[in-house]
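Re: beginner question about structure tokens

> Can someone show what the tokenized structure looks like for a real chain? I only ever see the sequence side.

Sure, here's an example I had lying around. Input first:
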Amino acid sequence: MMMKLTYVGGNGGGGGAGSGTFWRIVKNRSTEEFESLPYVCTLLNSSLWTYYGIIKEGEILVATVNGFGVVVEAIYVTLFLVYAPTRRIRVKTVGLVSLLDVGFLGAAVLVTRLALKGDTRIDALGFLASALNIVMYGSPLVAMKTVVTTKSVEFMPFFLSFFLFLNGGIWTIYAVLVKDYFLAVPNGTGFVLGTAQLVLYAIYRNAKPSKKFSIEDGSQEEHLIPSSS
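And the corresponding structure tokens:
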């Protein structure tokens, strides 16, 4: 669970943290340079952790927090589809949702339900969700790279970074207390990356951007969904 306070796993707290970003998107009727990939991945992540919380005894907190995350992230992804600045970006986003949030999630549920049982099923799903959680930290890393390149924190909202830090720390403590290391490893990673993002924010929050991006020149396409190459 990557736990942002988002949802536990996704883990449950980042939803509210991103509200300012999405009010901006709705107001401007454009996703500008904001990344859709982090929200597509978080939707998948929250879904996997919700399933994990359901099948593992005593993990109702994980299921409920991440279940809320599924609802919030689904709304966010819908906004990205509605307000994508170009058809090409919208088509790519639809492709990501179909591949990850429908195809991959469906396959994971079917395989673990039909081929595995008991503790083996729980361990397999926990390992899968944890691995995905760690891999999806590529999204915060992309945001950090953008900050360093542009010398601007405009597209790395403070509260998303703060809740990544806070969520990772809280869920890491929880995971240690309940001795669930599938939760501890990815959330510990989130705590470290959240800390790094806050440090970058402190460094660049008053820095003058190295260049001005405009929606008209189409440059935001490179950042909304990284190329597959």
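Each token stands for a local structural state, so reading them left to right follows the chain. Confidence is low (pLDDT under 50) at residues 1-9, 213-229.
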